[in-house]
């Protein structure tokens, strides 16, 4: 398996062998259930589709589509609310309904983790893009506005990609080259060095680099 789904629990500290403090993010891996297997003969590539079983918390609502609900019921994962595909060299030893956890990973594995960042709501250009802002005194009436964005007569429109106020955060973010410090297979916990995108209780994808 190339990776699995997990739930971010929060940050903690881990003491290395030399006594130095290592900031880590705790992730509960799974429980993930194999819902579908894709083979090179039938689909053109090798992959395994897994579902994350979440009984409570954000994103725990099960699928309402009848066809998908029937497939999850057949795989023994009616409560799975998140489905993702992960590469697998050979899925012969993984049967539909198999449950996977933290045993997929090992200490010192280098992974990339994808999650949805915290939503900050509607924000202006100073908070969203880091604009410097205008003068703060001497009668100035230009403080936090973005300034002129027009293009005069040519091309007489606002160009796509112009940095403007809008939704800040709540976007898909991937952090690469994170190293796994500790794996607890019994509790399905993984300690990853560094920060991981998303709030506590958010769903993350852990893929081996």
Tell me about this structure.
The protein is mainly beta and 209 residues long. Helix content is 9%, strand content 41%. The chain has 3 helices and 12 strands, in the order βββαβαββββαββββ. It has helices at 40-43, 66-74, 125-129; strands spanning 3-15, 21-29, 32-38, 47-53, 80-87, 99-100, 110-116, 119-123, 166-169, 172-184, 189-193, 203-208. The strands form 3 sheets. A 6-stranded antiparallel barrel has the order 1-2-11-10-7-12. It is extended. The mean pLDDT is 86.
Radius of gyration: 22 Å
Sequence of strands across the biggest β-sheet: 1-2-11-10-7-12
* Secondary structure tally, helices: 3
What is the H/E string?
EEEHEHEEEEHEEEE
The whole-number mean of residue pLDDT values reads 86
The largest β sheet comes out as: 6 strands, antiparallel, barrel
Beta strands, count: 12
Q: How much helical structure, as a percent, in the residues? A: under 10%
Structural class: mainly beta
Rough outline:
extended
| First-to-last CA distance | 12 Å
Indicate the proportion of strand residues. 35-45%
Task: List low-pLDDT spans.
Answer: none
What is the multimeric organization of the chains shown? Answer: single chain
List the helices and strands and how they pair.
Blueprint: E1 3-15, E2 21-29, E3 32-38, H1 40-43, E4 47-53, H2 66-74, E5 80-87, E6 99-100, E7 110-116, E8 119-123, H3 125-129, E9 166-169, E10 172-184, E11 189-193, E12 203-208
Antiparallel strand pairs: 1-2, 1-12, 2-11, 3-4, 3-6, 4-5, 7-10, 7-12, 8-9, 10-11
